[in-house]
Amino acid sequence: MPSPHIPVITIDGPTASGKGTVAQKVAQHLGFHYLDSGALYRLTALSVMRRAIPLDDEHALAKAAEHLHCHFNGAHIFLANEDVSNDIRAEAVGNLASKIAAIPTVRQALFGLQLSFRQHPGLVADGRDMGTVIFPHAGLKVFLTASVQARALRRHKQLIDKGFSANMEDLSKDLTERDARDSNRSSAPLKAAEGAYLLDTSAMTADQAVEQVLSWYAAAKPV
Ligand code: DC
């Protein structure tokens, strides 16, 4: 059973801000579990795409989220028993994830699954609403940002490394649209949680950002 006494660090921020890399490294350093909550929305989106569920069928979308047969094994992410670690990183999947993530019943369907990641000895969770909605009592909350330019460059590199084609102009436009949709939705919008430390990583390496988060954690009284 997840316990409220197990420490949690939340790292929220916009798409391609580097929060995934930073969160994973912080988790590794502390020996904590890691929750990539965006992957759950991406898995739901992939499942919705494959089953051609229409975007206006909220009931079916929520059911797809509720019955998500997924598991994580290190860096590998499985839908049913298929390794979809790369497929869920496609821009089309990310954009659909952002659309269905605006639907409250979809978010509700993924609520319990996210809480279940809180296991001993601790959890680092990254997403949009980790510090505001899912783990509002986390011992350390971080809001990680970076300029659109820096984020488009990072996303470009990520996509090319995974063998997808990408161009900077389309990516900057996608990021800006996704930010607007994630920030302006009424259900769990992207915003800094109360008490969150702000970290702009535009001019930082991932390791510098990790060091900063670890020093905040050492100074905090973890809950
Ligand atoms: O972090 P990401 O780019 O992999 O997330 C994909 C989409 O999922 C993102 O555009 C919005 C949604 N999301 C969300 O609404 N809440 C979260 N906690 C994580 C992701």
Describe this structure in words.
α1 packs across α9 and α2 (about 35-50) packs across α4 (about 90-100). The two termini are about 15 Å apart. This protein has helices at about 20-30, 35-50, 60-65, 90-100, 105-115, 130-135, 150-160, 170-185, 205-220; strands spanning about 10, 35, 70-75, 75-80, 80-85, 125, 140-145, 195-200. The chain has nine helices and eight strands. By secondary structure, it is α/β, with parallel strands linked by helices. The radius of gyration is 17 Å and the shape is globular. It has a single domain (about 10-220), classed as Rossmann fold (3-Layer(aba) Sandwich), CATH 3.40.50.300.
Question: Could you write a compact summary of the structure shown?
Answer:
By secondary structure, the protein is an alpha/beta fold.
Q: What layout of secondary structure does this protein have?
A:
Elements: E1 8-12, H1 19-30, E2 33-36, H2 37-50, H3 58-66, E3 70-73, E4 76-79, E5 82-83, H4 91-100, H5 104-115, E6 123-127, H6 130-134, E7 140-145, H7 148-161, H8 168-184, E8 197-200, H9 206-219
Helix pairs in contact: 1-9, 2-4, 3-5, 4-8, 7-8
The structure holds 2'-deoxycytidine-5'-monophosphate.
Distance between the termini: 17 Å
Number of helices: 9
CATH class: Alpha Beta
Q: What is the structural class? A: alpha/beta
Q: From the 3D coordinates, which CATH architecture would you assign?
A: 3-Layer(aba) Sandwich
How many extended strands? Answer: 8
How are the strands of the biggest sheet laid out side by side? 2-6-1-7-8
Helix content: 40-55%
**Strand share of the residues?**
15-25%
| CATH topology grouping | Rossmann fold
Could you tell me the radius of gyration in angstroms?
17 Å
Overall geometry: globular
Residue windows where pLDDT falls under 50 for at least 5 positions: none
Global mean pLDDT: 93
Bound molecules: 2'-deoxycytidine-5'-monophosphate
- Spell out the CATH superfamily: P-loop containing nucleotide triphosphate hydrolases
**Could you give a short account of the major beta sheet?**
5 strands, parallel
Overall number of domains: 1
